């Protein structure tokens, strides 16, 4: 009797293994969470130093238009820490690139999933995967060698500027948006297609009235993902945008983005100085923006589920 | 009750290949312009394959070859001049899974008409109500027309799918096991709906339920391994079948 009770109460091997597995996964999860929290904590404490230690006002930082942290502006007696030109530059190239890329991406995705499935799978899929894998510096070099001269000869000026940045980013995010749009189109159940055709839709009506409509949340998610990538891209943009931290007045005027200023400046400033701190503030904005993109994607996803 | 109506669809020597595998071996079947015809037979007997050939749903698949004559009111369904869009408006189809689009109930039912270019709100309103009434689901959804059709129960979704097809005023209604994914009560509702429509449409229903076939159909066709074994009045097929295979299947000895 006692022997049986003891045996029943003893934890079985599979339960032990189960617990061990759970422990390992929990540990991994904890580690990742810790890393994320540390990154956020580090960037935010550093980023806030501009406002706490250096007593710069938040509104001046966000809405000031003079960016030149190493030089004291004789008018205000303060260094130029207005980040608005950089924020504008980042947003401008991101939004423009997404605007141009989206129709192309949807067109390509529809071709691959609805029009020419076989050729789409055989030719387009590898091409897109290849495009995703190209290092951004290569895009930057090509942008510098091809896009910038082209813009220069068409619009005049140096060729370095918002337009060139937009074009390079457009090519960079196109495969991202396309492949995610392809996934969301493939996710539209086959029976939607059949029943649309079964009540007399043409193929085109089926595509744009049923499939694209059913896939809208997925397509929006794809666009936001593309924008997130464009917003965070540093190297390729930095090579073609001209890096003039001024408010961009036209498509061809040189500008700068948060990322380009950050990558160029962070190695040339001393830790703890104002010049260094404001760069951390820029990084903080980037981080918050990627958080916003993330939330946006989740929100769209949840909206899409409810329908 | 609907014996006197004329033939609307005549098929002769229908053969169908998936690649080089022959799945239908020459089917001859006629359908009246009113009433319900049930296609019964074990899985893989070719009844759904045959049904899908009637509005050219096989066009969507690759490697499918169809031969034979399909005469729909004097026109050949597979004639090169046949407009498949027009064909499918006249030969509507309801599928096994209830499959409303992820739109509102109203948009679902109005979908076919909008495709045809109908924009007049009054016409649409009326057609939506008529179709939903005909599909016996109006009373349950009339207050929720602008809510998503995906929020309905399976049975309601299937009746909305039927209403969506009825809205385009088809001559023939193809139903591919319309109740097999539903619970008994919903199945009963669908059957009642179909019975209420038997005087207006030619309906061809593929079903695995013999009791369903015997309850609702006027005529029954028994398929076996790609052949039509027997076709006749449902009463006759079920009570005094001529062929031994039919008798065996009806009495549950195989299949």
UniProtKB/TrEMBL annotation, chain A:
Q: Which UniProt keywords apply?
A: Cell membrane, Membrane, Phosphate transport, Transmembrane, Transmembrane helix, Transport
Q: What are the GO BP annotations of this UniProt entry?
A: phosphate ion transport
Keyword match Membrane: yes
Q: Which GO terms describe its molecular function?
A: phosphate transmembrane transporter activity
InterPro entries associated with the record: MetI-like (IPR000515), MetI-like_sf (IPR035906), Phosphate_PstC (IPR011864), Phosphate_Transport_Permease (IPR051124)
Task: Name the residues that span the membrane.
Answer: 20-44, 83-106, 127-148, 154-177, 210-231, 278-297
Q: Where in the cell is it found?
A: Cell membrane
Specify the domain of life of the species encoding this protein. Answer: Bacteria
| GO CC term, one of those recorded | plasma membrane
Reported function: Part of the binding-protein-dependent transport system for phosphate; probably responsible for the translocation of the substrate across the membrane.
Q: What is this protein called?
A: Phosphate transport system permease protein
TrEMBL record, chain B:
What SMART domains does its record include? Answer: AAA
Could you give one GO CC term from the UniProt record?
membrane
Provide the alphabetized UniProt keywords. Answer: ATP-binding, Nucleotide-binding, Phosphate transport, Transport
Supply the PROSITE patterns for this chain: ABC_TRANSPORTER_1, ABC_TRANSPORTER_2
Q: Which Gene3D superfamilies match?
A: P-loop containing nucleotide triphosphate hydrolases
Protein's GO biological process: phosphate ion transmembrane transport
| Protein's recorded name | Phosphate ABC transporter ATP-binding protein
């Amino acid at each position: 009797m006692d022997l049986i009770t003891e045996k029943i109460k003893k934890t079985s091997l599979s339960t032990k293994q189960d617990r061990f597995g759970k422990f390992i996964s929990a540990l991994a999860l904890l580690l990742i969470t810790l890393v994320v929290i540390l990154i956020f904590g580090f960037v935010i404490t550093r980023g806030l130093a501009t406002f706490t230690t250096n007593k710069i006002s938040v509104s001046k930082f966000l809405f000031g238009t003079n960016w030149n942290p190493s030089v004291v502006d004789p008018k205000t007696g303060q260094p130029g820490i207005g980040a608005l030109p950089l924020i504008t530059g980042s947003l401008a190239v991101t939004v423009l690139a997404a605007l141009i890329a989206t129709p192309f991406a949807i067109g390509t995705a529809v071709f691959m999933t609805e029009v020419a499935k076989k050729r789409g799978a055989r030719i387009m899929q590898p091409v897109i995967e290849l495009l995703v894998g190209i290092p951004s510096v290569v895009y930057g070099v090509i942008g510098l060698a091809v896009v910038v001269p082209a813009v220069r000869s068409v619009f005049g000026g140096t060729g370095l500027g918002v337009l060139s940045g937009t074009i390079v980013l457009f090519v960079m995010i196109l495969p991202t948006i396309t492949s995610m749009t392809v996934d969301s189109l493939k996710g539209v159940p086959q029976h939607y297609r059949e029943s649309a055709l079964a009540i007399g839709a043409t193929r085109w009506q089926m595509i744009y009235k049923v499939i694209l409509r059913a896939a809208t949340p997925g397509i929006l998610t794809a666009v936001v993902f593309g924008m997130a990538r464009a917003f965070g891209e540093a190297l390729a943009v930095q090579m073609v945008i001209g890096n003039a931290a001024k408010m961009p007045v036209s498509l061809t005027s040189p500008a700068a983005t948060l990322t380009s200023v950050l990558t160029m400046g962070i190695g040339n400033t001393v830790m703890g100085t104002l010049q260094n701190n404001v760069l951390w503030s820029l990084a903080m904005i980037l981080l918050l923006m990627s958080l916003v993109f993330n939330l946006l994607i989740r929100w769209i996803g949840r909206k899409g589920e409810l329908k | 009750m609907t014996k006197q109506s004329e033939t609307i669809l005549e098929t002769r020597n229908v053969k169908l290949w998936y690649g080089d595998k022959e799945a239908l071996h020459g089917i001859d079947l006629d359908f009246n312009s009113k009433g319900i015809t049930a296609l019964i037979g074990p899985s893989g007997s070719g009844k759904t394959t045959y049904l899908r050939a009637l509005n050219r749903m096989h066009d969507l698949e690759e490697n499918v070859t169809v031969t034979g004559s399909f005469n729909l009111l004097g026109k050949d369904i597979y004639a090169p001049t046949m407009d498949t869009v027009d064909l499918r408006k006249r030969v509507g189809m309801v599928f096994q899974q209830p499959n409303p689009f992820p739109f509102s109930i109203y948009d679902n039912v109005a979908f076919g008409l909008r495709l045809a270019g109908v924009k007049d709100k009054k016409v649409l309103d009326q057609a939506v109500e008529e179709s939903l009434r005909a599909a016996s689901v109006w009373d349950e959804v009339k207050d929720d027309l602008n809510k998503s059709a995906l929020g309905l129960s399976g049975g309601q979704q299937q009746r909305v799918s039927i209403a969506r097809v009825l809205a385009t005023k088809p001559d023939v209604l193809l139903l591919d096991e319309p109740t097999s994914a539903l619970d008994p009560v919903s199945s009963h509702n669908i059957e009642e709906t179909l019975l209420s429509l038997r005087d207006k449409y030619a309906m061809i229903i593929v079903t695995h339920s013999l009791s369903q076939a015997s309850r609702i159909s006027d005529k029954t066709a028994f398929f076996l391994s790609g052949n039509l074994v027997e076709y006749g009045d449902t009463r006759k097929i079920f009570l005094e079948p001529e062929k031994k295979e039919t008798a065996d299947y009806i009495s549950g000895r195989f299949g």
